[in-house]
Write a structure and sequence with these properties.
By secondary structure, the chain is α/β, with parallel strands linked by helices. It has a single domain, classed as Spore Coat Polysaccharide Biosynthesis Protein SpsA, Chain A. It is built from ten helices and eleven strands.
Length: 243
């Protein structure tokens, strides 16, 4: 099984323009993501997928590989699909978030290991929630999983609703999980899901993975105890620099 790691990176972020090129302790964010991901032994190839020449120049400056993609993609998943169509010969693609400069390569290994089971077509990671702040933060998607560790729903709202319990006690009444935004796909599945039209649940929650579930795809999950720190805004960057 041949696996390619893909780091989608665009310059024109709405909340943080130029985000991949911001400096974190002397290195650009995209370089830090690339160097961390390159430590994952399960990846046979690793590329940055971008539509911006400035990001290309940065990747070239540190000796990384890239694929220049179109500028009309609505999501990182769509950008990954273009990459695998331009670079055939892989069985699995891992979509690595370009705004997590300290991603642990062990998380990539954990996700890639899901595809040792030939029945797995889509996979992602989840982590236990232990704080009220995470549970009620709409920017942190929550995940419902079944007894086979397959995701059955994602929501920005805490799910399930705990009846007959005060919200302050929900964490004691039930184990909640949050989504860690790294995805794996078999290549045929990746190409298929990017042809699906947006679904009603996806539009309602603004979560693309709901499109896949609505169309009958199973999403395998693996539990991680490792935290991720994404940089969505300049404030996030300041917090990471302090840490």
């Amino acid at each position: 099984m041949k696996t390619i790691g893909i780091i989608p990176a665009r310059f024109a972020s709405t909340r943080f323009p130029g985000k991949p090129l911001v400096q974190i302790d002397g290195k650009s964010m995209i370089r830090r993501v690339y160097e961390q991901a390159s430590k994952a032994l399960s990846l046979d190839d690793l590329v940055v997928a971008t539509d911006d020449e400035r990001i290309v120049a940065e990747v070239e400056s540190f000796g990384g590989s890239y694929v220049f993609t179109g500028s009309n993609h609505q999501s990182g998943t769509d950008r990954c699909a273009e990459v695998v169509s331009l670079k055939p010969g892989f069985d699995v693609a891992i979509n690595i978030q370009g705004d997590e400069p300290y991603i642990d390569p062990a998380q990539i290994e954990l996700l890639a290991g899901c595809f040792n089971d030939p029945s797995v077509k889509l996979a992602t990671l989840v982590k236990e929630i232990h704080s009220q702040e995470e549970l009620f933060n709409a920017n942190i998607p929550k995940v419902l999983i079944n007894s086979n560790q397959q995701a059955i729903y994602f929501s920005r709202h805490p799910v399930p609703f705990i009846r007959n319990e005060e919200q302050s006690n929900w964490l004691n009444a039930h184990q909640f999980y949050k989504h860690i935004g790294i995805y794996g796909y078999t290549i045929p599945t990746l190409l298929a899901i990017t042809q699906l039209p947006p679904s009603s649940l996806e539009i309602a929650e603004s979560l693309e993975q709901l499109r896949w579930i609505e169309n009958g795809y199973s999403i395998q999950t693996r539990m991680t105890s490792l935290e991720t720190r994404a940089v969505d805004t300049p404030d996030d960057l300041n917090r990471i620099v302090k840490l």
